[in-house]
Amino acid sequence: MPTRTRSRALFCMEPGGVYVPRSRRPVLEGPEAVAMYLFTLYPRKFPQEAFMTLLVDPRHRVERAVMVSLGTLSSALVHPRDVFAPAILHRSLAIILSHNHPSGDPEPSLEDFALTTSLVKAGKLLGIEVLDHLVLGSDGKKRWCSMKASHSTVFEPRKG
Fold first, then answer.
1. Is residue 82 part of a domain?
2. What is this structure's pTM?
3. Residue 112 belongs to what domain range?
4. Residue 2: its pLDDT value, please?
5. How far apart are CA 16 and CA 130, in angstroms?
6. Distance CA 121, CA 18 (A)
7. Residues 67, 69: Cα–Cα separation, whole Å
8. Is residue 155 part of a domain?
């Protein structure tokens, strides 16, 4: 099974990511459904950080999964241009961000908060909503954190 999962995650690195046919698009209702879907894409016990974007349709069904960046044990280089390019190309209304922590601890880091804040702002300028950012633990225990559910202020406009 790990071989199948590994090849699936690496296939997401193809230009444009992995297209999901309409008849097989999962409806992602809530962060738990998103996390369980993402666990099917990320290899178990993956030894490096990987940043993936899900392009979703107006009904929150996955259209594509795109691997944006493969990093090191403790970080992945992510730029808004690389995150939003596939969403613009495929005319997506919304995206879901995700990345793994090889340590297994899904608690977002300060860098994760800064990146998410930057991407939410960029998405607002582009008219592409960032629905959530999930951090997955890569220790095989299926632990995860929804930044929108646990730290919603990152997704809310600042007042003043």
1. yes
2. 0.85
3. 2-149
4. 42
5. 18
6. 26
7. 6
8. no
Which pLDDT score is estimated for 91?
93
Residue 146 corresponds to which tokens in the numbers above? 């929804």
**Ranges assigned E (strand) in the chain:** 18-19, 50-56, 62-70, 94-101, 129-137, 144-146
Handedness of CA 7, 10, 12, 14 (dihedral sign): negative
**Type of residue numbered 109:** S
Interstrand relation of 129-137 and 94-101 (parallel, antiparallel or unpaired): parallel
Per residue in 18-68, pLDDT (tens digit) is 767 677 777 888 999 999 999 888 877 778 888 999 999 888 889 999 989
* DSSP-assigned beta bridge partners for residue 13: none
What token pair was written down for 124? 């607002």
Q: What is the DSSP letter of 109?
A: P
* 159 domain-assigned: no
